[in-house]
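Good morning N.,

You mentioned wanting to compare the apo and holo forms, so I went ahead and generated the holo version with iron/sulfur cluster. This is what I fed in:
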Amino acid sequence: MTMDLLGIKPLGIIARSRLFPIVPQFIMLSVYATLFIGSVGVGYDSKIAPYIANMNLANQLVWNIWWPVTLVVAVIAGHLWCAVCPLELVNSLASRVGLKRKVPGFLRSGWVVPLFYAFILFGAGKYLGLREVPRTLAIYLATVVSLAFISGLIWEKRSFCSYICPLGSIIGMYSYIAGMEWRVKDPKFFDKCKTKDCLTKRKRYKLTGHSCTSNLFPAKIHDNRHCLLCTHCLKACPDSNFSFALRLPFADFFKKIKLIPAEMGMLMLIIGFVNNSWHALVVFTLIPLFFCLLVSRKSPGPMLNAFMILLIPTTAAAHMLHAFRGIIWNWPVYKYNFIDPLGVRTATMLADKTLVIDRSGMGAAWKLLGNTTGLLYGVVFAASVAIIMKSPLTEEIDWKGKVLLVLSVALYIASFYFKV
Ligand code: SF4
Ligand code: SF4
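and this is what came out, ligand included:
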């Protein structure tokens, strides 16, 4: 399947336009500012605390609309959110005028991403109420914009995207599943090209149509993990030698892809969060991993890598379902969010019991989600078995190891049905 979506006229025009992605990024930056204004005034109040999270429009838009949509888009199309992300804009603009220092080893190790994510989950999430208190959301938005700006001022290229942003890491892992890929059209043209505009240092800080600042060799992109779909290399290339083509979903899993230890750590955190149980992480993930490593003592490296990569499809499915549960639960609430965007009045009425949210009409939506759940897990299990049987990822693993991998995936899927 090689249909190039850039051949669809409006998409081609947008991707080649010098206004893309800068204009959508500025629009998203103004959306960030609006969300900040809509949440910063609503702090913790014990009376309305159980209700305000779902009643504040900014909080709802971020956690129960944008977040689920971003996950689905990542699974379908890869880093499409990153193409319009305002943090990339802030980071890139700052890096144009900044010190352009080489990125230090502690950032390049990749461990800052899971550490930052752990802070979001355990610090901001658990103790500061990131999802519950609108003002904490506002502080979080201001913090990530500041970090993108400061890192841009200090380090070269897209340092925030490449070494700090947890969202980019989550999207990157899920984008292995995507049914679309950004690739060079004709590798021979690249070999003959004298100027290498998509790669050259000379063009790194052009406002638009710059060479790749995601540390990629655009003509040799192997998988979807790191390409932000920013389209700058397309505009830089004198021959527009790039395509955004349809492909079979899960295609990257049939290549030799590799997770670095920091990415594995990040995956463990995502699994613990999605499963909503750190016991489940141990019982359904770490114990099966121990047995898999035990049977493949001669080649623990490929087994560890394959095991971790095989967790990604199920984690993506569970993450999306988790997020969509939030959308359905909040469906009857959205009209109140627009009537009272700050949500304080509505939350007070709920606390006083002068208003009751009627959730009785959501039966069909819950049933649909139930059916989708079974279907999604069925698809990811079938895909995982195909990966185990056919992918070069498991070519060094013997049949006993492969059987254990199949059982491990089944057990991991089961963890979303049984609470530990
Ligand atoms: S990696 Fe993060 S900051 Fe960069 S574009 Fe993607 S979401 Fe935005
Ligand atoms: S390869 Fe091209 S589209 Fe991908 S991140 Fe680099 S410049 Fe952007």
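Residues 182, 212, 214, 216, 218, 221, 227-233 surround iron/sulfur cluster (ligand 2) (CB under 6 Å).

Happy to go through it together on a call whenever suits you.

Best,
F.
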